[in-house]
Every structure is written in C-alpha cells, then in structure tokens.
Amino acid sequence: MNYETLGLKENPFRLTPPLDPKEIVWAGMSEVKSKLEKRIELGIRTRPSRIILNWGSYGSGKTHASLYFSKTDRLQELTTKLDAKPSKSIKITLPRSSSDIVQEFLRSFLGQYSLEEIYSDFQKLKDEVGEEQLVLMITNFSNDTVIGEVFKTLINTEDDKYFNILKNYIYGDSTKSTLNSLELPYGLKNDEQVANFIATIINCVTYEKQHYSSFIIWLDEFEDIDTIKKILADRFTTFLRQFIDKTPNNLMLFLNFTQKAFMDREDLSISLGEALSSRAKLKIDFENPTTDEAIAYVKELSNIYLIEDKELPFEDDALIKYVVEHMGNLTTRKINETFSIILEMALIEEKEKIDQTFIDSIQDEIIAWEE
User: Fold this and answer.
1) Closest Cα partner for 341 from 7, 14, 25, 24?
2) Could you count the other beta carbons within 10 Å of the beta carbon of residue 21?
3) Mean pLDDT in each 10-residue stretch from start to end of the chain (371 residues)?
4) From the centroid of its chain, how far is CA 137?
5) Does residue 65 fall inside a structural domain?
6) Strand, coil or helix: what is 138?
7) Which of 84, 115, 142, 222 is the S-S candidate for 148 at Cβ 3.0 to 4.6 Å?
C-alpha cells in the first residue's frame, strides 16, 4: 500500500523542511500569514529599514515562514500585486559553530546570495543607472576605500579567472599572489568591513527601488545566541547593529526567536543586546493554534495533497477534533508529527479509512497523545 490508497499523493505532514520549492506550501495560520504579508508589503512600498521579531514556541512555524517567503513564488506575487520591482529574500541560520562568527555569517549570506548572482545583479544595475552612477553609489555606500575598490573591481570584471581570484579574496584568501593580482590590500577580516560589504550590496541593489524593491533576511534560530560564548554573542550583535545602521533603507530583518521555558518578552533585551532590542520595535506572535485552527490546518494541508475525486482519509471532522483534543499544547510541528504517524500506521495496518476505533488502537504509537 501507498498513500494513494488513502486518497493522497503523498504524506502531507512533513517532519523536515522540504527542499523542493514546489513542496513548500502554506496551510492554516491565516492570521500569522496576513501579519507577515502586511509587514512585507510595507517594506516593499516604503523605504525605512526594519527589524521584525518573529516570536513563538518551538514548532510554531517560524522556519517554515522564512522558507515560504524565500523559496516560493509568493513574494513575487506580492510585488506584482503592488506593481513593484521584485524583492529579494534569503534565509540564514544563526552562525554558532565557528570561532569567527561574523565570517561565518558572511559565508552563509554568500551561500544564499552567491557572488555570481550579485555580479549579475550589479551588471543589470549598471545597465539601468549607468556605470558612472553605479560607481558613485558604491563610493557613497561602501564607507571604506577597500570595500569600494572591491566592488569597482567586481563590476568591471569580465574574465572568469579574474572573477574567481576576486571571489577567493572575498572568501578570505589573502595570499600574496591574490593581493598582487587584484592590487588590493589585505581586507574583509575586520567585522566592520564585512558589515560595509554586505550593506553596500543591499544599498546598491535596492537603491531607489529600481532593481529590488526590498531585501529581506530571515535570521533563523536566533534564540541560540545564548548558547554562544558571551564574547562571540556580543561581537555578533554589535556586528548586526553596525550592519543595520549602514543599511537604513529597504532592508527587512526578521529575527526568528523561539520562546524558551520561563522566558518573557522582557528577557529579550538580554539575548538581543540593548542596541538590537531598541531597534526591534515590531513583533509578530506565532501563537499556538486553537482546536478549530488545528482542524482547519489538517484539512487544508490534506486537501493540497488530495487526489482528484478522492475523499480525505479521515472519517469526518469530529475524528480530527478527537485527535487534536488529545494532543495537549498544540503547535504545527506537533500536529504534523501526530498525523504523520497516523497515516503511516494506516498504511501498515492497510486501512483505507481512518476512524476512531483505529485511532484508539494506535494510541501507544502517538507520542503526543494525552488522555
């Protein structure tokens, strides 16, 4: 048996984030989605940069939101609706495995927005505003002669070999041959230079909203900042403050923050640092779903994967409610885990329709089950 026996193309309730953008779908959580989209639309329409704190319990959908608005066509749909230029969105997980946390952030940034793509965008920008204007923008935005020269070199690079040498330089190659080839001094090791480098990219590609209407960074798992040595955590929050101050327009920084046990919002200033917490004025609550919202989520997500002319494998809404009411505190992750197990057990037991008798028979298999 496979999921088609249950009327489904596959298991809708994924336990790990999908890699294929076509498999990243939004179900339920309509209020959270609306709040996110209103913030994103505001960033598309207006200039000031913003920090938004996404606050919620573990498994409440924060990581999913960052993937949904970075990997799917939804962001393009929003810019089209507003008759605006495209918006760029990337997701970065908080760096925490390196002693050089700022360099790790830079590598993560370039892993999501590659130097090849940056080069392509700058070439398009040069065509749009002219080389003279672009050089002036680089000079004004770089705040550093070395960073300015890096970008002026980049926009005039046509040889692949030379491009790769420049790429190695940006990634930290400071050998004598590389420095001589580029005629650039040792650079991009200073945290402020990294802030200038990333800020220059964003300031240029969003200038007057001519190329991108906004640039969105989702910084995931930010709550783990308290697991990093204090000296590194302070260094990183200082770097973020510098970066944000150097990018005053068209940047939206979403900080995904999972609420830990006995933690209140007032405790955020400890994790964020005063400099960041004073700038993070906007918050979006990823609240745990109610019973009705959970039922709607299960049905909506199941319907996305439902084979045409088939019925949902669950006997009725009352059955879904029965399961949901025995799950304790609800999160989307817990709902996914529970209903994924139910579908898998249905395949094992060769059930084509799931009823309460079957649910009662597999209660011991459902980790989240509560009497």
Assistant:
1) 14
2) 13
3) 91 90 94 97 97 93 96 98 98 89 95 97 95 96 92 91 88 78 79 96 97 98 90 92 96 92 63 74 91 96 95 95 95 96 95 95 92 77
4) 28
5) yes
6) helix
7) 142
Instruction: Indicate if 41 and 106 belong to the same structural domain.
Output: yes
Looking at the fold, whether 243 and 349 belong to one and the same domain comes out as no
What are the DSSP calls for 194-258, one per residue?
HHHHHHHHHHHHTGGGSS-S-EEEEEETGGGGGGS-HHHHHHHHHHHHHHHHT--BSEEEEEEEE
- Are 208 and 278 found together in one domain? yes
CA–CA separation, 296 and 290 (whole Å)? 10
Domain count, the chain: 2
Dihedral sign for Cα atoms in the order 311, 316, 321, 326: negative
Strand 251-258 with 88-93, pairing: unpaired
How many Å apart are CA 14 and CA 343, to the nearest integer? Answer: 11
Residue 187 near residue 146, CB atoms below 8 Å: yes
The answer to whether the predicted template modeling score (pTM) of the entire model surpasses 0.90 is yes
Q: Is residue 371 part of a domain?
A: no
Q: From 285, 296, 109, 121, select the one nearest 188 (Cα to Cα).
A: 109
Does 253 share its domain with 164?
yes
| Cα–Cα distance measured from residue 220 to residue 21, given in angstroms and rounded to the nearest whole number | 18
Q: Is residue 22 included in any domain, yes or no?
A: no
- 89 pairs with which residues across the strands? 216
